[in-house]
Write a structure and sequence with these properties.
The protein has 146 residues and is an alpha/beta fold. The chain has five helices and seven strands.
Length: 146
């Protein structure tokens, strides 16, 4: 291959990868109960946002959460792993994209419980909720308000 062609292909590959949203390059591994419908709706929300998703059906979600390293007090109905971070509960895809772009030193993000109006928990009566950034020591801070 000639040097100009090799340079063009390298530049093209780099430009193409930079043009892709963070979601397109990251696979989300979701650990959920086989019987939970809202988890499936959250997965659909991620797919619409461009994430590739691998679903892992587990019979004991709290055990999976513990094994992955998310603090139990932040628990919801599913735990996910993406880009070296954990994502607990019905976290909006935009918050995950921001996390992957900013790359803070953190365990990940959590939306504890299952707030009505969060992705996968659509409701005619949504309630305000927060996405929390989970620090390595388990402490949290507000990452986003919805």
């Amino acid at each position: 291959m000639s040097k100009p062609v090799a340079v063009f292909l390298t530049v093209f590959a780099l430009a193409t990868s930079l043009a892709l949203p963070a979601a397109a390059a990251d696979v989300v591994d979701v650990y959920k109960s086989p019987y939970c419908g809202c988890c499936g709706k959250w997965i659909d929300h991620l797919k619409v946002a461009g994430f590739a998703v691998r679903t892992h059906e587990v019979n004991d979600v709290p055990a999976a959460r513990q094994r992955l390293g998310m603090p139990e007090q932040l628990g919801s109905c599913h735990t996910a792993k993406v880009g070296g971070y954990l994502v607990e509960g019905h976290v909006p895809a935009a918050d995950i994209e921001r996390l992957l772009k900013e790359k803070p030193k953190a365990i990940g993000l959590a939306v504890p419980a299952m707030p009505p109006g969060s992705p996968g928990m659509e409701s005619p009566r949504p309630v305000p909720y927060q996405t929390l950034l989970v620090q390595p020591d388990g402490k949290t801070s507000v990452y986003a308000r919805h």
